[in-house]
Amino acid sequence: MAAVMTPALASPALAPIRASQRRAAGNMESVWVKPLLLLIAFSFLSLFLLLPLAAVFHEALKKGWHVYLAAVTEPDAQSAIRLTLLCAAIAVPLNLVFGVAAAWAVAKFDFRGKNLLLTLIDLPFSVSPVISGLIYVLMFGAQGWFGPWLMEHNIRILFAVPGIVLATIFVTFPFVARELIPLMQAQGNEEEEAALVLGASGWKMFWYVTLPKIRWGLLYGVILCNARAMGEFGAVSVVSGHIRGETNTIPLAVEILYNEYNFAAAFAVASLLALLALVTLAVKSLLEWRIHRLSVASLPEN
Question: pTM score, two decimals?
Answer without folding.
Answer: 0.78
